[in-house]
Methylthioribose kinase (Paenibacillus montaniterrae), 400 residues
Amino acid sequence: MSTYHPLTEQEAIDIARSIEAFFPADASLSCKEIGDGNLNLVFHIKDSVSGKSLILKQALPYAKVVGESWPLTLDRARIESEKLILEGKLAPGLVPQVYKYDPELALTVMEDLSDHVIMRRGLIEGNIYPLFADHISTFIANTLFFTSDLGMNQQQKKLQVKSFINPELCKITEDLIFDDPYTLSDNNNYEAAIEDAAAALRSNDELHLEVAILREKFLTNAQALLHGDLHTGSIFITKQSTKVIDPEFAFYGPIGFDIGAVYANLLMNYVAQAHWSKDEAAREAHRSYLLEMVVSIWNQFHDKFLALWEAHGVDRLANEAKGYKQYYMKRILQDAAGYTGAKMIRRIVGLSHVIDIDRIDDDAVRNSCQRQVLNIGTQLIIRNRSLQSIEELVDIVKSN
Ligand code: SR1
Ligand code: MG
């Protein structure tokens, strides 16, 4: 057993070579560290003889995006590998295969998805993904239903809640999403040109009440085992295939939080298409496509979740009480709207941004997009508890 230390590229090659029956004996392995996320090292190992490849992901004991001054638990590597394995069982084909987890090194060895692209980049290029709504609605419905009190043994669920307690990663979300944007915080990061819009977030009492309610649900509502960070940078995609990665923020929380993460990132791309699409017709086509995708994801998720409930529901009263299913699904939709708004706002004024918006080089266009994201986010949060349909969510987006 090795004691923890950040791996060198040569050590990553040696570990990859030891994965049984993966690389042939005459493999000629090369390695490159390719991690471009906020937290971890990611080694890409390739055999030039067979063409086979692997990913080794190693957690660092601090948040890479900030540095060693922000210590972070290595237990997130366990949570990530256990969640990936569980997701692979509940939503087959929609996550990378895990070959090995090494707790000492906080290391997960998994399938290389280099034949896919990160969805955020694909959307910026204006690509269409015809199967995405089907795939992601299956992923969300299956992983959330079967880890909830509706779909699994309720005593086992309590043990699962315990095993996925993830206090440090949850605190990042609690601070960066549900606190910092609404106060003067050193973590905040936004341009002087939108100071007035950022200040408006800090003085809006109606908004603060709704964010406090969303925050409370995030802190206390252990509804299902969430991915916890389901943005378009956590999704590898092609026209035929979707693979969800990076569940290190997994914990038991409100179902709407995962849906809100997907929506927020689709909608920020929707706003940013004002810059990224070459001509007006292409831009409008892509924007319509993104809004249709938002509607389709909800409708498919709704139908799939209810079908699972019908076939596999374990809670007699929840199964039979008249009106309960409608109540439950509407609450998920309303939570999803609120979390969509919260996740949009944090990416404009908070610590960690998205390239859809940040890489717009024209200052005026970028600032205008930032303001639009803040407006949509604010309205979604303020109106979340009265929202009645997915079409209403789309209307809020279009009217801002
Ligand atoms: C300090 S980590 C910043 C962000 O990166 C992750 O992807 C999460 O979204 C987190 O909030
Ligand atoms: Mg991540």
The two ends are 56 Å apart (CA to CA). The CA atoms of residues 1 and 104 lie 7 Å apart.
